[in-house]
Design brief:
Strand order of the largest sheet: 1-2
Shape: globular
Helix content: 25-40%
Order of helices and strands: HEEH
Strand content: 15-25%
Number of strands: 2
Number of helices: 2
Number of domains: 1
Distance between the termini: 19 Å
Radius of gyration: 13 Å
């Protein structure tokens, strides 16, 4: 990303995605943001997602809808 190029995603949006993962009791190993602004959250191996993952799926769907081209 060039220094004078505006970011396609804000820190607040990344924070929301990570909070949603924690709320779903996922053990976050790392996250990546692609050039389009899509946030991908990677979990640590051996962690199973509880039933609250439905909330995370909804939040991610809302996030992607807000950032669709």
């Amino acid at each position: 990303m060039k220094a004078n190029t505006r970011a396609s995603i804000t820190q607040a949006e990344i924070t929301r995605a990570l909070r949603a993962a924690r709320k779903a009791r996922l053990d976050v190993a790392r996250y990546e943001v692609d050039p389009s602004g899509k946030v991908v959250v990677f979990t640590k191996a051996g962690v199973t997602a509880p039933s609250e993952q439905d909330d995370l799926d909804r939040e991610l769907t809302d996030f992607e809808a807000r950032h669709a081209d």
